[in-house]
């Protein structure tokens, strides 16, 4: 299996297809497999890079907390290792946040951006009502079983199944306080941007619309009937939207 040393971490990655580079950034506690439909579709027209970050998939965790700043650094290290860029960036959830930060702070590395179900701050999550009638943050109880997310971690992680609780605790601590992206700071984004989310996403629709309104010239797509897992629930539509957007920023996909 392909690995690359990134700052002392044996990091797993896959590269498929040929053409302009696309970097596919998975969500928190996710693996490449949850973006497999998008990877396969894009690889017919692009060179798709799919790295797994520390503590995710086949890449071991590192000591210390997880942060978006650190994940941006890891992504830049991957791009440098393979001399990738500027690249189309397609990010889901945590990956969307990484993409927004890359496009804002490292504009020379991002040719275009598709940000799917990302948020600017913890207040962007939908609040759910518990059985006792109290509001609670949606992020407090991620469903790791319905989509096989925990099973994939247990099967693939070199740290072993028991370490999944450690990684989830780190992620939960990050999600409760990060990111902290000022909407006005996104005025610095120069890459063509598509902001996408599900109609019933864990991210509030008004928050998704705020992200799109804050990025100059950004397009927005709300996928009907879909949740936060829109890439798995409506893969055909999501793939069509991504391919059409990327085709408009460069050559048209075959």
Automatic annotation (TrEMBL):
<dbReference type="InterPro" id="IPR029058">
    <property type="entry name" value="AB_hydrolase_fold"/>
</dbReference>
<keyword id="KW-0378">Hydrolase</keyword>
<dbReference type="GO" id="GO:0016787">
    <property type="term" value="F:hydrolase activity"/>
</dbReference>
<dbReference type="InterPro" id="IPR050471">
    <property type="entry name" value="AB_hydrolase"/>
</dbReference>
<feature type="domain" description="AB hydrolase-1">
    <location>
        <begin position="22"/>
        <end position="238"/>
    </location>
</feature>
<dbReference type="InterPro" id="IPR000073">
    <property type="entry name" value="AB_hydrolase_1"/>
</dbReference>
<protein>
    <submittedName>
        <fullName>Alpha/beta hydrolase</fullName>
    </submittedName>
</protein>
<dbReference type="Pfam" id="PF12697">
    <property type="entry name" value="Abhydrolase_6"/>
</dbReference>
């Amino acid at each position: 299996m392909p690995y690359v040393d990134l700052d002392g971490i044996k990091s797993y990655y896959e590269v498929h297809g040929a053409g302009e580079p696309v970097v596919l950034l998975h969500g928190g506690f996710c693996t490449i497999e949850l973006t497999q439909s998008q990877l396969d579709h894009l690889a017919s027209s692009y060179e798709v890079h799919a790295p797994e970050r520390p503590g995710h998939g086949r890449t071991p965790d590192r000591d210390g907390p997880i942060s978006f700043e650190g994940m941006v650094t890891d992504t830049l290290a991957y791009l440098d290792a393979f001399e990738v860029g500027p690249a189309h960036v397609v990010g889901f959830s945590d990956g969307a946040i990484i993409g927004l930060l890359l496009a804002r702070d490292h504009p020379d590395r991002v040719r275009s951006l598709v940000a799917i179900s990302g948020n600017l701050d913890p207040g962007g999550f939908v609040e759910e009502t518990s059985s006792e009638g109290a509001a609670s943050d949606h992020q407090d109880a991620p469903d790791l079983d319905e989509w096989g997310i925990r099973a994939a971690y247990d099967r693939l992680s070199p740290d072993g199944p028991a370490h999944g609780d450690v990684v989830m605790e780190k992620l939960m601590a990050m999600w409760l306080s990060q990111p902290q992206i000022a909407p006005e700071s996104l005025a610095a984004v120069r890459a063509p941007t598509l902001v996408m989310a599900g109609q019933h996403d864990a991210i509030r629709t008004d928050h998704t619309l705020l992200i799109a309104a804050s990025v100059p010239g950004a397009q927005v797509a709300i996928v009907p009937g879909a949740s936060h897992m829109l890439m798995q629930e409506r893969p055909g539509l999501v793939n069509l939207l991504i391919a059409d957007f990327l085709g408009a920023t460069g050559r048209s996909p075959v």
